[in-house]
Design brief:
The complex is a heterodimer of chains A (741) and B (443). Helix content of chain A is 25%, strand content 22%. Chain A is α/β, with parallel strands linked by helices. Classes of the chains: A alpha/beta (741), B alpha/beta (443).
Amino acid sequence: MSAPELVTLTIDDREVQVPKGTGLVETAMHAGIEIPVFCYEPRLGPPVGACRMCLVEVEGMPKLQAGCTMTAQDGMVVRTAQTSEQAARGQNATLEFILVNHPLDCPVCDKGGECPLQDLTFRWGPGSTRMTFPKRTFQKPIPISPTISLDRERCILCYRCTRFSEAVAEDGQLVAVNRGALSMITTFEDEPYRAPFSGNVTELCPVGALLPTQYRFEARPWEIQNVPTVCQLCPVGCNVQVTTREGKVKRVLSRNHPEVDEGWLCDKGRFAFTHLYAPDRITEPLRRRRRRGLDPISWDEALDDAERLLRAARGRVVVALSGSETVEQAYALGRLVREGLGSHTAVLPEETDASVGAFRLPLSAIRDAELVVVVGDDPVVERAPIVDLWIKAARRNGAEVVTHGPAGTVQTAPGTAAQTCAELAGEGSELGARLRAAERAILVWSGPGGNGGAEIAALAAKLGFAAKPGSGAFHLPATPNAQGVAEAWAAASDGEAETPEQIGLLLVSGDEAAADPNVRALAERAESVIAVTMFQGLAVGWADLVLPATSYLERDGTTVNLEGRLQRLRRAAIPPGPDELGWIAKLAERFGVAVSPYPARVFEELSPTLYGGLPYSDVGEVAPLRGRSEVPPPRPHDAPEPPRPSDGHYLNLVRYRALFSGPAVERVPELQFQRPAPEVELSLDDAQRRGISTGDEVEVRSNGTSATLRARVSRRLLAGVVRIADEHARDLHARVEVTKP
Amino acid sequence: MPESERMRIVLAGTEDGADLTKIAAYRGAGGYAALEKARALEPQAVLEELLAANVRGRGGAGFPMGRKASFLAKGTGKPTYLVVNADESEPGTFKDREIMFRVPHRLIEGCLITAHAIGSQNVFIYIRGEYLHEFETIRAALDEARAADLLGGVTIVLHRGAGAYICGEETALLESLEGKRGQPRSKPPFPAVSGVYAAPTLINNVETISTVPAIVERGGAWYASLGVDNSAGTRVFSLSGNVARGGNYELPLGTTLRELIYEIGGGIPGGRELKAVIPGGSSVPVLTPDQIDTPLDFDSMAQAGSMLGSGAVIVIDDRCCMVQLGLRVAQFYMHESCGKCTPCREGTRWMVQILKKIEDGRATQGELDLLLDVCDRILGKCLCPLGDAAAMPVASYVDKFRDEFQEHVDHGACPYGGESSLDRVFAPVDQHAHSPVADEVPA
């Protein structure tokens, strides 16, 4: 790319040089001058010039101009309110008009103290009001969803929220109705705002009009602390700011990492934090009493128990990892079990493959792509929500987006993503040829199955992506730190894994593992089980010893997201008991293994092996992305057998793990409305053949199991396939019959 | 000036009483000859004529049409659109309406010639929702033109608005046309670069487009010779208010207000006195009786401190209370404000509140000054001209009739005793509303 043309202009008598086309607000900022704004937000698309807060005087133009809608031109002479009386009067006028109907209820407004309207009024606005008439009133606050409330009186109609809904999330649910002074924000058809990214509007709102219900009357800005950390509820690892008051987490805000999340956050990451305070949270160790009973015990007793169980297993220990542990936890656990006990077997919910690291790119590269190809059975938004926003941004930028899946733009049978990759790599594929030709092409694997990373990396290698810095591949794993955990476990020892015939002890590390049916199946074969989990519900009935787990919000350490970016977790809240690293260190001591209980020390120990000796303090608040790794040699592997095609009577069940599911979401009352409806998605073809229409109650049966669900007919779904969210599909088999009773 | 000497360029050939809504009659009167002539010419040649004619936009802003057309972005790979603004909504203005129901083919012919000149295959006519009869007339005429094979591959789409004044603003019109909320866009980019569907778009008023056939037929130079300097051609003036013979009159630009009101319009009935004239629709500053020798052209009106606007001349006699007039104007703009930008949305409502208080005789001296300050704080600070359209006239009423406003404050009552008549001047705003406008200002 050639260097952009520079232009020189004058703002408030300061000369400033910026690339041509830079917005005036940014240009002024470059010169150290603030042009105040309300409606301007570059992430929401082109400026709209609605609020009129950014009025500036531009030489040669008779009227004041909205600075946000202008771009820097050579020789321009601009005066902001700092040096232009006219501009200052204009801004004062705008603020007076905004406040004419604003209730000024700052003392009871949650936004008070961190409110742009308040701040700008103090700096630029009138000191008192000349408005003596009755103000406009509305019913308030109105819950537009269980998580967000709307106060229309406070709304200044900057249209940031509706623009987000229309042009970023593309859910189109938040709209403006009426006109003039009666204009107001509402949801389409007055339905609840049910969309995966709805919470972002509470942060975009420059006043206290859209507020999270969870934070209502919970804290004031001068009594809170904000901790910069990373969300660990999906593999994206969005950067977040966690607000705490008196040691308790009160809310989660986005923290703009321009390469990862661009400051957006999904509702799971934003609102699921209250699982920390779930009534069934385990705060002390528990010992099994008879079949389903659990007795609280002291930590000393718990460590004794654990030591006894570990010794009794005589090396036949299997560790079920969650993929949500920190790198340090996984490493410490590896040291304890592998070095101390000589047991090297661990299972992860989903295997990951490091080969995709050879095609590493920041997520933001998706936005700049010409061609995005997604393969896999799962909708991207359910696996890694922010990736869906990046793909939408790419489409808005003119990129072609092709999705292969049972409901993709190219309909493919479930479980055939590997075959799709093979076809794309072949000579005959037209799309493959375009992928090869494109300068900036992106591949995304969004589906279950352990081999996704290897498959997509192999495809990228064959398409010549290694030589194209703008092209890359992403694998969307099922868990937040799958790669970091796998790497750390591997680095902990050199011993070879040998799966024991008989499992002496199953150590279940974390909630994802505890909720995994495969892990439950392993437990059947284990003589004893130690479960590390946060919630009573996941511990009852199978664990001999339960150790309280911590949440990502209570941990310090590092984590690796789906890009391969090493990011730093910071403890926002103090866990109710010792954290994992603490008791692992204590326990390791008893087996003659020296492990530090401090994440910084553990990191320093593993960093030379895994992260090139990077110091802990250099992981950074806005972490950089590592360079690409070496292109791995092609490895022969067998593609999994795709399921038999449907015979018309039996249909192939595709199940997916919904974004709004899992132990944390289940414990947040405000998020229940976001959970997937008890629905079965049917293709138009299959529905018509069975006389089923949307809304009908149908029975889904497989050999020996059945479920009654509501039908939803989809024109996009491939015939012969039904789709059900995991939590409703439960123990249905892969081939089902659907009938209308 | 006698009736027969009026210019007949836009409202052409109506004297023999032929029904020009029918294509045969229109052709009989020489219609569609210009189209044939234009199509034989290179598009650039037609554009040259339009440039030479120096016809300024008849919608209100008065931007030269030929120049606007020459700004159209070329080589974008997108189609070029022609959009006709038939959303005539300015109070006092009813000229486009008459063009559409009297000579619809003239508009269609103008569309087709202009489309040829700018190389467009796609024409939208965005017609005010309330103009049902005009819509049906145009539709019938369009069917005839289509049947007569005159469209030549051009698609003309009639689109009815849904009753919003703001959709007469060109970018709000384009938003509405795209199916979005009718709110103005920030400019630049101008429609010539990024208009409807982000494609280059020429957007002109009905009257402007309807002048095109005559320009092509008789040449741009001929057209430019009509009227006065910098205001070429004729204009259809909508004369209304307290005048004997209201109606649409097509006159050369530069005709004085006095000629229009007294000679053509027959003066003020009932022996009453002229109090004020609004020369270009409700949004322009008012003129006083001593200014009625001002010629009706763009520059003279600007010199007189007002604007030619939409060419709607509203005559106000001595029964009228200027505070009531201001209130009614402000109510209209409050009701029609789209709600996008702050000063217009909040300012118009505040203006209404203050004006109401003044009219009721409850206002203090400070509030009269406040009214002027609120107007000043709206002026020139809005996203589109609607805010100015509310603030400019009201400020001019206070400016020119300060004593009358002062009397309301001093005597604690309207000196017209509430009997003041706005009869025939502006319709009450409630007529525009689905619900009474009073509801918008909760007591």
